[in-house]
Amino acid sequence: MDFLEHWDEGITVIDTGFVRARFDAAYLIVENGRAAFVDTGPNSAVPRLLAALQARQMAPEQVDWLIVTHVHLDHAGGAGLLLQHLPNAKLVVHPRGARHLVDPRQLMAGVRAVYGPEVAERDYGELQPVPPQRVLETHDGMVLALGGRALLVADTPGHARHHHCIWDEASRGWFTGDTFGIAYPDLRTSTGGYAFPTTTPVQFEPEALLDSIDRLLARDPQVMFLTHFGATREVAQHAAMLRRQLDAMVRLARSVAELPDRHARLRAALAALYGAEYRRAGGVLDDERLQELLEGDVELNAQGLGVWLDKQAAAA
Ligand SMILES: [Zn+2]
């Protein structure tokens, strides 16, 4: 099945098919006859997630954990529906996100506000509520046992306050959700690739995100499992790119804070920044293709920076 990639250490990368190929990943981890999912994609991904289990000769009863890195819908939109297929699994979620998956009405309203009702329905469908007794809320330092394998939870605010990452000692890798940015395989280059931060509305906090990136690096990871998209071993290189661009994004957001057409200016400045950084990383795609691949993120990042600027102004 071309949407599955079997990695080392019992890890399968599942392309959820959301938006386009190699855009949105979920992961399956198998150890000693037990299984865990990390992130789910939206409802439409559930058949692929179940196919991944089958490809590993695992039954739905053997899944102990359904971990969502945070409750943005490209990561957790399918959690309620998937859980209906997994009789023994607990949903593992950050305490700040749990209530939104138990009662998804607020999440749905947020998505309708950002994308409009038609797109919200088309892309995400109807979110299925998770029964509260099936929810396990995490805390920093919590360890989940998976067939004798330890998965460690780290609280990693910055992209969102309801974000945690999962350390897997067996692969010496982090399941990073959106904390370690985005690196689409389509943007790979001769020097390893291009990564950039994601500042999706509405809880972006730059200082917290930089601290969380430092926390991830402190374990000397060998691999990062990104939701957008896939496993990467270019850890130090990507970390340097993320820090540099976060600094630049904050600077340029501040520089347009008081100007008219702030959102359009932010969009243009972000597109220019990412284009320059991609070229600096050795990227050779033409400008039109690059813009096609990045335009959704440019829009979301500009929105998120705008929300952050408004909060700064309100707090001043
Ligand atoms: Zn996110």
Outline the structure in words.
- With 316 residues, the chain is α/β, with parallel strands linked by helices.
- The protein folds into two domains: 4-234, 4-Layer Sandwich (Metallo-beta-lactamase, Chain A); 240-315.
- The chain contains ten helices and 13 strands.
- The strands form two sheets. The protein has a seven-stranded mixed beta sheet, covered by helices on one side. The protein has a six-stranded mixed beta sheet with strand order 8-9-10-11-12-13, with no helix packed on it.
- Strand 3 (25-31) and strand 4 form a beta hairpin.
- The mean pLDDT is 97.
- The structure holds zinc ion (ZN).
- The site of zinc ion (ZN) has 6 residues, from loops.
What topology does this entry show?
Blueprint: E1 4-6, E2 11-15, E3 25-31, E4 34-38, H1 46-55, E5 63-67, H2 73-76, H3 79-83, E6 90-93, H4 98-102, H5 105-115, H6 117-124, E7 135-137, E8 143-146, E9 149-155, E10 164-168, E11 173-177, H7 206-217, E12 223-226, E13 230-232, H8 235-256, H9 262-280, H10 287-315
The structure holds zinc ion.
Task: Estimate the global geometry from the Cα principal axes.
Answer: globular
In DSSP terms (H or I, runs of 4 or more residues), the helix count works out at: 10
The major pleated sheet works out as:
7 strands, mixed
CATH-defined topology of the largest domain? Metallo-beta-lactamase, Chain A
Ligand types: zinc ion
Helix content: 25-40%
| CATH class designation of the largest domain | Alpha Beta
CATH level 4 superfamily of the largest domain: Ribonuclease Z/Hydroxyacylglutathione hydrolase-like
Q: Taking strands numbered 1, 2, ... along the chain, how are they ordered across the largest sheet?
A: 1-2-3-4-5-6-7
For this structure, the quaternary state is single chain
Taken together, the total number of domains comes to 2
- Encode the helix/strand succession as letters: EEEEHEHHEHHHEEEEEHEEHHH
CATH A-level architecture of the largest domain: 4-Layer Sandwich
Strand content: 15-25%
Give the termini separation.
53 Å
- What does the radius of gyration come to? 19 Å
Q: Which class do the helix and strand fractions yield?
A: alpha/beta
